[in-house]
Fold these 2 entries.
Entry 1:
Amino acid sequence: TSNDTKDSEPQTNTKAGNAASEAPGKPVTIGFSAPAADHGWIGAITANAKAQAAKFSDVTLKAVDAGKDAPAQIAALETLIASKPDAIVLLPQDGAQLTTVGKKAMDAGIIVINLDREFSDAAASFCLIKGDNYGMGVAAGHYVGEKLKGKTDAVIGEIPGIDDLQLTKDRSKGFADTLKGYGLSVKHRVAAGFTVQSGQAAAANLLQAAPKLDAVWNHDDDQGVGVLAAIQQAGRKEFFLVGGAGSRDAMDHIKSGDTVLTATVTYPPSMASSAIILARLAAQGKGMGDLVELQVPKMIVLQSETITKDNVDKYLPLGFKS
Amino acid sequence: MVKTFPGVRALDGVQLEVRAGEVHCLLGQNGAGKSTLIKVLAGVHAPDSGEIRWQGEPVSFGNPQAAMKAGIATIYQELDLVDGLSVAENMYLGHEPNAGGFVARRSMRRGAAAILERLGHPEIPAAREVGKLPAAAKQIVSMGRALSREARLLIMDEPSAVLAHDEVENLFRIVRGLTAQGIAVIYISHRLDEIREIGDRVTVLKDGRTTAANLDAKTTPNRELVSRMTGRTIEYVFPERPAARTFTEAPILRVENLTLPGRFADVSLDVHGGEIVGITGLVGSGRSEVLESIYGARRPTTGTVEMLGKKVRRGDVGAAVRAGIGMAPEERKSQALLLGEPIYRNVTLAGFARFAKGGFTDAGRERTVAEDITRSLDLRPADVRRPVRTLSGGNQQKVVVGRWLLGGTRLLLLDEPTRGVDVGARAELYQVIRRLADEGVGVLLVSSEVPEVLGLADRVLVMREGRLVHEAPAGELDEDTVLDLVMAGSLLDGADLSSNTPEGTAA
Amino acid sequence: MSTTIEPPVDVHDRPRVTAQGFWQREGSDHAKRNLALIGVLLLLLIIGMFTRPDIFLSGSGLWQNEVVVLSQASSIGVITVGMTFVIIAGGIDLSVGAILALASVWCTTVATQSYGPAVMVFAALAVGALAGLVNGVLIAYGRLVAFIATLAMMVSARGLAQNISQSHTQITNDPFIRSLASDKILGVPYIVLIFLVVTALGWVLLNRTTFGRRTVAIGGNPEASRLAGINVRLQTMLLYVLSGLCCGIAAIMVVSQTWSGSNTNGEGYELSAIAAAIIGGTLLTGGRGTIVGSLLGVLIFSQITNLFIVNGLPLDIQRVINGGIIVVAVLVQQFRVGSFPFLKRTAAK
Amino acid sequence: MSTTIEPPVDVHDRPRVTAQGFWQREGSDHAKRNLALIGVLLLLLIIGMFTRPDIFLSGSGLWQNEVVVLSQASSIGVITVGMTFVIIAGGIDLSVGAILALASVWCTTVATQSYGPAVMVFAALAVGALAGLVNGVLIAYGRLVAFIATLAMMVSARGLAQNISQSHTQITNDPFIRSLASDKILGVPYIVLIFLVVTALGWVLLNRTTFGRRTVAIGGNPEASRLAGINVRLQTMLLYVLSGLCCGIAAIMVVSQTWSGSNTNGEGYELSAIAAAIIGGTLLTGGRGTIVGSLLGVLIFSQITNLFIVNGLPLDIQRVINGGIIVVAVLVQQFRVGSFPFLKRTAAK
Ligand SMILES: Nc1ncnc2c1ncn2[C@@H]1O[C@H](COP(=O)(O)OP(=O)(O)OP(=O)(O)O)[C@@H](O)[C@H]1O
Ligand SMILES: Nc1ncnc2c1ncn2[C@@H]1O[C@H](COP(=O)(O)OP(=O)(O)OP(=O)(O)O)[C@@H](O)[C@H]1O
Ligand SMILES: [Mg+2]
Ligand SMILES: [Mg+2]
């Protein structure tokens, strides 16, 4: 149910090691740094990383907080680098701005796994694993496009997250580009801020701007809670809503079909768990069991999958708690 | 009674005894400890030692509230009103008539109106915001506040300082009314004649000690009172005035029909170097405004101000100062002083740039210069590094005047320069002013004390309702004629200004 | 000396003191200011009519839209009422947003929810008032500068909220709580009604009670208030409790609007509330201010945001324009009341 | 008429002036405050030694760590210097963070970069000073309340920065710019040196020049300053330009630290800077403050953050503790100087 706040241990998505990686290797220390975990998705990222690390007997995790902005995270990492861990999993405040420390760490012989927000210089990381923001927009675009195919006068709304972030721009671009393919376009775009409250405010006003809607894509299921509330409060039902990221709460709604939320496109925080796994393998000089190569790949870009009523059960376990 | 502040023993063994129904006067130089004493009585400061007996039994007031409950009401030396509140609300502040926390506004207004009536100022609207009242009216209100509590003892700390002549008479009338009801009054003033007129007994403080108690207010000769206050004998007199001169060279200041609608209209006057010109008139006759306009603190609508033959830019203080004009404004706390800053920095506030080299200040020299000045003014305590806040009222006034003794000032505008200054210091100030004049500085002096103007000035201008109505060498005037001039016939000439008064008071 | 002056029948500045220029009339400056603000508000609506006639010129559309504007203004509005009191008293409260977050989280924990809506509401109010009390004690008795004390509370309260919720969004399905935002009387949502009621109470408290008048007093002249026997400390403390309480109320509103409590709620509320109060004519230096003005300030901000969104302006443009509007809104008033000495002085600050 | 003033016989109340109370001595209260702050700073280091002996007890480790602390303090520190001036003059500047962002974006546009580092630096400083000038004009001559004027600037400047950069992070590869943060003299990075130099200049400007004196004067009593012939308006305006200029310098520092300019830079700097200044003993009501105090305030905050990070405390705990430390830091001083009447009074505010 949507308000299962009872488990104080936030649920996480981890992987029990497979044959190849299971065998404990030489003990490794992995440093981990992500922006301040003060809302769902980032929260899940940190939780996953910690949980996954705990799964390995041979891994000790050193989590350092990123502070409130790029310079602060740089400082945090400089202190981390000084303590010479084997690897660092880094979700930067800002990919470009943290490139400088990525390099520093690599130069210091530390394996840097760049998580999600890409460095401006590939040489600054040993391996990049990231979600696909543009692809996310594409996925949402296709879902909306398919449903509204041919209905060229369709009114489409979009509720992005924090609008002055690069990732938001990418998502919106993917969405717009894809819709163009269907002869559709976004009519109303109101930015929120990844928080429930901003979601509610944005949606409430957007519904005023658009007396009639056919579809709305909300970039983020965290703010989605507020978005859904606003829609319900306005008593609007004539359109369908597509979510983003893939929170447990969103999936529950999709499953029960009790709201206008009919689908969500994933941007899985489980990538943090994978990042830890990659870091361990790389540090121990192993490759990925199921692949031929003896090294972990240079770059992994996760698919953005579309969760609907039909396939929701498959994804439920991956749903993170917003 | 003993009270020490960091660095000072403000009270150092004071005795005071007040009987019901009497007017007991407190005399003492600036910094003698009068205000401190009454603040202790009013429960503002806690005494370090000593006891207060109130109607027989010993009491100790932890806070002002306790004192008020006991029936002690106080008018403090510094205006203590809240600008944002109405006249009525100010009067009843802290003891508003209320029903379950809700202010009974009607009864409060009525009460306030009644008190204003009793104070002889029914024209002050009880609902008016105090912030919009002129200084004079404010003083009435803070008196009204004291009367709003039915007190057994009413303390007045230099109430007459900001009052004009007729207002003082009015004040006395009220005081007599109170004493007739058996209410005791402690009256502080630096004006001996007032004490003669209203006082029954006098207690004299000096340096925080009682030097004389319960003298008879009517009979004790000035000489004795003064010597008890100061430890020396001063005749309450003015420096020698050079025999009426005719100034050959052109006046340094020439003002031509200056007008500020609603405050004053076509004022023309000139001041020669070395001459002291006094302006007198009722409170609210616009004297301050004239000074402020000459000084550029207000922008007159028409008229010109010429300093040393050069026009001074209208409404630009900086220009005036550069032209060699200096002013000691009326309200020292709000208009003149940086209370938190040390004395010397206040003295050099208008002149520190002159001691600076290439923008870099020279604190050392500032301090030595300031020390000379404060010594010449006999400021106490003399340490120029003390914050001005800790000075007594009169001494703060000296600092304000001292600011313009740095030199370089050709014309000095003085608005109520001796307000709250003690007898001794007064005589010294008069000396200073005269000395300046003799050095060729022109002085334009505003004072509500007619004797002061007559005694000090070479030439006297009488202002009424924003107009200069009379001009004469001081020698040819005496107090009564001036008082007549100040008021008489106003009903006739009053008309011509009333035309532009309404939007004037708005300005 | 003997001057025989008959009781002052003819004191000449009397006509002057009474001469009633319009400006002189009681509170008229506030009236003027508020008029100016209403003007700004109308201007915004007119802009709306030109840019989105379909909404602003259709009766129902306008009504619906303005209901949203009001709903969006509710929580910040309630907080601004409390803030107005604090500022009038010469203080400031930077912790409002954080306290809101804390209260919203506290009242939506599983534990609290299990006791039902009544307890949830109580929890929110209690947490708010308590946090306010801490502020008040630190400032009034601990003698901390209000800015610092409330800044500290701002940081700590958010931390605590985050710690309790573990950064999760705590969803509530309680029908009563949800109904506050969704159900309406005569087309007006409950939370809007609550907002208006709180504002009205605030007005009465400020203008008609000794509490209110003393608030103005300690803001205008703390020393004089002390000499007048007012317990400045106590009064100060109570004011922060009041502000905290308002945060509690606002928290409930936000929870009912978002069906959830979160440690991210109320971010930036402190500045918005202070700005609204100041635009409404409250002096940051204390001693002056009106509830009506603050109300108008809040509505103006809320209306601006709404205008931007219905016109689909991109965020960066919004921001640039927003700054301009704030300046204009204030200049409009200054221009009307520019001739006021005290305004000039504080304007220099 | 003749005056007979016998030479003052007993030299009045000199005896009564008890031994110069230490408190009375000029600036001594500041000295005390700063001592208290240094105490707090040492305390933090000691905590570090217990929690992370490996860092804080190894000479090189400590040095390296403190260099990081100083680098982190640089940009906010420079801004705090400007802020201190503004606050001492009785004003406030909420736009510092936004101006920093704008300057950092402006000086890293492709166009600007094409002209090389000198122009980039110039651009940052010019943009900062100009934005400050706008603030200053609005406040000094437009008579806007500083809070509102700078709030408006805060919103607009960020919007403009976003508009220029289109929310992209603008990377710079200029070796000179990068070197500022990376290269060191005697192990001290350039930006730290710049920070310390700016602070020193600030100290001289405030304490040894007429500019500084005027600043203190208009903060202490604008009316009196005006009547003393000081051009209050001009001075006020210049102060905001100064603050803006500091933002420009800080922008260069951030760019060199992050190799890029971004519209998200400097978020929340306004509150941090104000807090640092106040903790450093600057009166929010104006008229008093020291650069040294502000410097210490900044270092304390920077050191706290560093302690949290090296101990890997989670954010929520950090926040809770942070609030506590702020309160303690101030209480420590108040306790030392509690005997100051004016402090008491302003504390009530
Ligand atoms: N708050 C304070 N802190 C330190 N010293 C003070 C304080 N208040 C007064 N003093 C000192 O106490 C002494 C007495 O001051 P007080 O105001 O009582 O003098 P006064 O008799 O009222 O003088 P005046 O006639 O000028 O008002 C003065 O030396 C003054 O400097
Ligand atoms: N803030 C104000 N609002 C309205 N009227 C004022 C204000 N200040 C002064 N006035 C009016 O301006 C006129 C001149 O006032 P002012 O007190 O300066 O005269 P004055 O002769 O200098 O009296 P004083 O001796 O008290 O200085 C008076 O009529 C007064 O009522
Ligand atoms: Mg006194
Ligand atoms: Mg006057």
Note: The longest strand of chain B covers residues 209-216.
Entry 2:
Amino acid sequence: MSSFSAKVLVRSRKLTSLIAHCCLIHYLLCTLSAMNLRELHRHLVVARRLDEEAIALQRQGVLPAYAPMKGQEAAQVGSAAALDPTRDFAFPTYRELGAAVALGVDLVGYLASHLGNWHGGLYDPMASRFAPFNAVVGGPVTHAVGWAMGARLDGTGGVALTYFGDGASSQGDVHEAMNFAGVYRLPVIFFCQHNGWAISVPSERQVAGGSVAARAEGYGITGRRIDGNDVAEVYEATREAVDRARDGGGPTVLEAMTYRLGPHSTSDDPGRYRPLAEERQRAQDDPLLRSARLIGDEEFLAEAESHAAKVVREVREGLLALGEQPGEEMFSFVYREPTRALLEQQRRWKESADAQ
Amino acid sequence: MSSFSAKVLVRSRKLTSLIAHCCLIHYLLCTLSAMNLRELHRHLVVARRLDEEAIALQRQGVLPAYAPMKGQEAAQVGSAAALDPTRDFAFPTYRELGAAVALGVDLVGYLASHLGNWHGGLYDPMASRFAPFNAVVGGPVTHAVGWAMGARLDGTGGVALTYFGDGASSQGDVHEAMNFAGVYRLPVIFFCQHNGWAISVPSERQVAGGSVAARAEGYGITGRRIDGNDVAEVYEATREAVDRARDGGGPTVLEAMTYRLGPHSTSDDPGRYRPLAEERQRAQDDPLLRSARLIGDEEFLAEAESHAAKVVREVREGLLALGEQPGEEMFSFVYREPTRALLEQQRRWKESADAQ
Amino acid sequence: MPSEMVTERVTERGTEATEFSLQQAINLALCHACEDDDRVLVFGEDVGRLGGVFRVTDGLQAKFGEDRVFDTPLAESAIMGMAVGLALAGWRPVPEIQFDGFSYPALDQIVNQVARMHYRSRGTAPMPITLRLPSFGGIRAPEHHAESLESLFAHVPGLKVVSPSTPGEGYHLLRQAIADPDPVIFLEPKSRYWHREPFDPAAPVPVAPVGTSRIARPGRHATLIAWGAMVSRCLQVAELAAEDGVELEVLDLRWLKPIDAEGLAESVGRTRRAVVVHEAPLTAGLGAEVSALITERCFDTLRAPVQRVTGYDVPYPAGPLEDQYLPGIDRILTAVQTVLEYRRG
Amino acid sequence: MPSEMVTERVTERGTEATEFSLQQAINLALCHACEDDDRVLVFGEDVGRLGGVFRVTDGLQAKFGEDRVFDTPLAESAIMGMAVGLALAGWRPVPEIQFDGFSYPALDQIVNQVARMHYRSRGTAPMPITLRLPSFGGIRAPEHHAESLESLFAHVPGLKVVSPSTPGEGYHLLRQAIADPDPVIFLEPKSRYWHREPFDPAAPVPVAPVGTSRIARPGRHATLIAWGAMVSRCLQVAELAAEDGVELEVLDLRWLKPIDAEGLAESVGRTRRAVVVHEAPLTAGLGAEVSALITERCFDTLRAPVQRVTGYDVPYPAGPLEDQYLPGIDRILTAVQTVLEYRRG
Ligand SMILES: Cc1ncc(C[n+]2csc(CCOP(=O)(O)OP(=O)(O)O)c2C)c(N)n1
Ligand SMILES: Cc1ncc(C[n+]2csc(CCOP(=O)(O)OP(=O)(O)O)c2C)c(N)n1
Ligand SMILES: [Mg+2]
Ligand SMILES: [Mg+2]
């Protein structure tokens, strides 16, 4: 038995409910066949290196700003990898690079949002099964609920997964969404990355009671707190929730405990609100080191790094090659067909643009 | 021992937590001295008869519309009576006649809202410790949280109590309010009247998980479901929550299980969405009959009825005597001092009013 | 029998002109939209079993089932957020928010999500949502049940906004709104719900493009501009003025976004005088936009400054004060007199 | 050292004119308001320990303690709802919403509660809330961080709305807003936060009543009307025009509710030509109200229709497109040319 499947067994022992035990064999089979820790690790490394590159690009003045996700790679990669991109759909926030990597979203298109080319990014959200970059905290959570209802009406077996943070859990929309999902028993996963901070506010002064997963019970839905830095655990837990949702078992709240190792964004200075020692201490629980240790195959690990370096190079080149969006685009996507008034405004814009 | 204090003992045995047991003596003392089932019953009867009168007045065309609270008298009276009107503050919805009765709010002023004289009613909310009539479902819940913080900052020992329904529990604001109250551990009571219906939607299709009180745990705050048709239980539970809040023990969610015996409002026809049999069956658990049975003193009960009849007569006369509000009032309360533009609009309004 | 409104009417499809109230016409439009496009979904608070507090969705759940027509929990933000998700999943959502004043809790979803998702996604995400919103005053309702939000919605890029003034308009504009690929806010003048007019839903009508206004009554001395319930009030005013030989044109703006600037300029270009009437408060109301558009286009022909007859800058009042708040016939006539008698200083 | 901004400045109270940025001036106004009235409370997301994402509340928590200056959980509706409750308990809340675009989740509380509680309570409930809202664009921010909501707020009876254009204005208008007994929406032009100007907070200033505008630069050929960040842009335009002998008056509207209709009429009565400039989209923007007010009052003297130079009717764009979206110097100059060269047809 590989060290990874051994680990699965250990984790599985933690599951005490009857159902969990009955599903063990099934899970082991899934885990061993469909899933691959090595593949997850490759995603982790791409996410980490690309995140680092984005910070570098911001320092070099290429990106006006960036929201790093360092430390959250396992939570994002593990959850997104558990989705079936032929029928599921993910709803990201503004800090979901790792999920984009695992779902195979066009990464130049994803980072174009931080480049300031287009707010929603330049990737195709419908084809990517990855909703447009969303900067409203809590905003996309109800979308996932609606999408899940649509998928169920169509009988596609599709599952929606929505990302949100510990800070976002305070928003009314998150409650409304969980309640709707509970009432209709929809195939939706509320995936909270509890990374300890919402900008400067620690989750102790944000999340009354301390746990977002614990809220699930109040809606009669399954809630589970997981180790968000353990990519296998995240993957398994999400897989379990996806399977349950597909089978008509309703929604799940997953709370991945992790830590935002970097600043909130490149404009932020965490030194103003948290001790450097905390960051240093938390940095030791590095999701990449954990999966690397489990894999233990130095050759593979080196290969993963060089693969990531190649991706980073390509994405960097792609970003640098991106021109500015043509001004016409301001007008052409507002409606399916521009209105007469908008065409007139576009005409005037063109005149003044040409005059310069 | 009177039958009522015996009942208190019985109820008390239901309390299993250590704290509850320690408080028993204290409660019995409070209960026997400060509280009086007879007084509560008098409020119940006033509320019931006035509610009936309001429906009659609506049928007679005096009130344009009315939202009956028949069946919810015990929940409202029991909770409001547990407040200290010298330092606490209640935040009603649009269906809180019973609470207004128990708090001694000017009832003509309260019903003036249904009469269509003034949306917020004509009573003085600050002096009455009863916020203006609020028609936004869930709207006042966060106000109670802010008020509670203000009271704590002032060290008055004041407690805020906010009313809301099973339907309102779906609103994002209710979640935000509970989370804030939990984070700051504020002296506020979230008093849910779970009356089974939000207009035509039964609470099974409204409240995922079935219980609003169960949500409290997710915020790390005390939650308790109580028999909302038992005025003594409601009083005691609220008293307990008020005492805890005053002592710095933080917020409480109380879920009073009751039933809206009438239509949502006089414009509503419950026959369209619920069987008459359900109403009939639920009507048997009448909060007034329950307290009357406990009191058992026919003479007193008759006296309570004649007291209520007197109040009803006075309120009816008061309502009929109310003139229309002068048109100037449209302008004079918008700001503390009317703006120049508003004075100009008032002048024009006066011209056109006088011309007619 | 109200609970059979849809089934009753449905049998009439393609028969002959009957008297319809606005409420019935909208009910019928919803029914036909559901029949013609099985991606249409109708949902909101109390729209299912009850058929809506105004019975506008009456009978639809019985006819189309609980999947297509359903009640939601009491949360307006989630209603609109769910609409976004359903649209992304390829459905055509027709949510209702029960009353105008309760659209505020949903405004974040409406402005930050519904109105922008198509733009944000560079035209890839479909967003054919029609939000039905019983609107405006005039029925002595409680607080928050008589609000006019059109200027707010009209300010938001990505939204379209429309309000019908008659049963026939209600039917056709709602069908047009639901068929439209963009999000449309459909403001139903609730004070007109019960007003009946003959109307044949099967009669072929020339489809006016989105954003075109309608001359409800032609005239040549001045143009009254209105929408929703104020159209019939302006028609009354025109009737009265005609007795004095004053021929007022009544322009039913219908689409409040995009606004028919050309139609306004055409009418006022002829009449050279304009009065705009709305229920919303004066300041930053849509009357200001109408006034500015007209002035920008007809500065030379205008014989008097455009007059605005509107609600006052006060919260919508209760009871009998609502008649004093709303633009009354006298106030409109006074404004007409002002534009007719205006002489440049 | 930014973290000592308040303490540093506080020692200067009543000393002499120094260079202040708008961000510092507002910080100082908050500090003095907290000193002068111990019922003032400052709260919002990240305003405490961090001192706000723009450092506008920097140092306040250290100086006034965690009771007076505190962080809230991330929920805008509850922030405003809490403000209502605190006001009812006799406090003077000065909440911050972190960015313009995130005020939508709080709009229900702002419109249905904050703006109406005084009215609803027949003048008995005090509601002296000042909502600070970093606003407008120009800093290449992410989506929702560059919105202009003034026409929406100005439409709501019961609210007052103000936006400063300079550090000195920022200081005095915020102190006036906090002292005002009514709810005030205080729109801070974030693109001007770092612009420094000499200003002496202790210098005695004649207090202009709420609702009065300010002539930022006198002129006689046309009036440019603006607020917030657009005032400095209009001053640039006036500078350029002056080179060609065109003397433009720049009117800083400041109060967007109540609007200074008299001030507008006075200025345009003299110059006979007006251009209004704002960042918000054109349709139903506050420029329409300004245009209508001017036309209503100056119809006879106006030599050309009031021109509006505004954002387009599109969602606020990203990156370099923002310069194309915002009213630029050239677009404003073109409008000036239009009003100057206009000849009646
Ligand atoms: C509705 C809303 N309010 C405020 C903001 C500003 N803001 C952006 S991120 C953020 C903190 C979010 O914290 P959390 O949800 O924990 O996510 P994290 O940043 O930790 O990934 C805030 C306050 C926003 N984007 N949306
Ligand atoms: C925000 C909001 N949405 C919708 C309404 C319309 N409405 C009034 S009462 C009601 C049902 C409320 O149900 P519940 O909270 O259970 O209180 P109850 O009426 O049972 O007392 C609805 C939908 C409203 N007043 N406010
Ligand atoms: Mg976080
Ligand atoms: Mg209820």
Note: The radius of gyration of chain C is 20 Å.
